[in-house]
Specification:
alpha+beta; flat
Length: 435
Amino acid sequence: MADHHRHAQHQHHGAGPPMVPTVRPACVTPVVSEWTGYQPVSPPGGPYGTFNPGYMPTLPTLPTAGRGHAMFAPPAALGGHRTPPASMFDSIPGYEGTVAEGGGGCLPPPMPADPVLQPEPAPQMPDWTIPSITEETAREALILYASSKCCYSSAPAKDGVITNMEAFNTYRYRLETFTESRSTEWNHEPYVGQPVDAFTQPPPGPWDIGVQTPKFFLNAEDTIKVPYTSSVKPCHGCVGMGRKPCTVCAGAGNRFCGACSGSGFRFGSASNGGGQCLVCRGRGRQKCYHCNGQGSTQCDICLGKGQLLVYINLTINWTNNSDDYIVEQSSGLQVANLSTVSGQELYRDSQYLVHPVMGFPDSLVVQASQRLVNEHKSRFSNTSRILQQCHTIELIPVTKVTYLWERESHMYFVYGNEFKVYAENYPATCCCSVM
């Protein structure tokens, strides 16, 4: 008897009821992760919150959509891990610096195996004369300009007497450098049985993957999945479960009843004569609409699959890098106006690399060409591959027109192939106001 008594004391550890082992519900799978996973609990009074004092439910307990318990999770886990951890990605030879969401920056192109082609001699400069416009063209341009303004009278344009027309040489030099740049970044997508080929053989280098070059001097982009980099990983957003705690109810499966402010009664409490809340049936809480009482929702990263196909994406960008230089002229027209019009092309040279312009009559154009050609070479050759260059010289026609209207002299400009007009002080305008 004494031995039996001591054995009973040893089992019960002194006073108190005997220990009962905790049994985990069969519907919940334990998960080991960075956070503690879903914690199945039964709140006092049942799975839909604490029952109100003095209220004994006579209605059956609402089901939890096939689950024995709602699931709680710590706040850090509610939003999931949107950014994949660095440990999720393999170390692929030749792509060690690749990261997710930002890539590894532009990859420098390899040194060319063959000697770089030298630019061919520039074509001879043609002999161009300065174009001029007629008085009729200048007048029609001003009439069209005045008619486009709601407060401008067309009388000065129609009746003004043109007294002088002066043409100005305005050159625009433009250098275009068409480049190809490449960058890599880790990407992922839900795994639904796609081929997995990582480490089956070494992947090709970023600049060894062949692509079709688009038409020169047109921007384009292409994305290619790098071969032999695809592997399967557990989803970082849901720790491989396919579901995440509901962000509305914090994984509880139920939420505070707004109809009765959580009291369970229509008018505050039973002492105030309030009847049972019909929305939550007196429980003070109601089933979460977002997760339908499950406490979790489908992971939006893996779409419920629990696994991701992880691979490296190669992004190729073809960019037309263009710089202009407009020679300042003494007409009085601002250079900014000329950027919106086209001119007559005097010169064009397009090849892999171009020589700076030589022998042009305006020395400012020659200096601008030398400067921009050197700048483009140093700016783009280290981070991208130069595919083609083209430079042009345009003659933008600018005509300064002086005319008399009502015995006063006025002036306007007609410029560009579009015959645009700039008339800062048009003599017949009115002020419109709404009272």
